[in-house]
Design goal:
Shape: globular
Structural class: alpha+beta
Order of helices and strands: HEEEH
Strand content: 15-25%
């Protein structure tokens, strides 16, 4: 099963952050430009593990799993 099938979608992740839900998760939606891919013209979001996002700006959202939300 893909990780995309196990976490909430990007829109819900953004909404949860707007509602000040604590952003503690194992996975995060991050903007590809935030992790160094400057060749991309459009905003591209990808799911990254917690260990991959240290030092990023605020351009990320928790991609909660069902277990984390429960």
């Amino acid at each position: 099963m893909n990780i995309e099938d196990q976490v909430v979608n990007l829109e819900l992740s953004k909404r949860l952050k707007e509602l000040c839900v604590k952003q503690d998760s194992q996975f995060y939606y991050v903007n590809a430009k935030s992790i160094g891919d400057n060749l991309l013209e459009n905003e591209v979001w990808m799911i990254a593990h917690l260990s991959q996002i240290s030092g990023l700006s605020d351009n990320w959202f928790s991609a909660f799993t069902v277990g984390e939300l429960g």
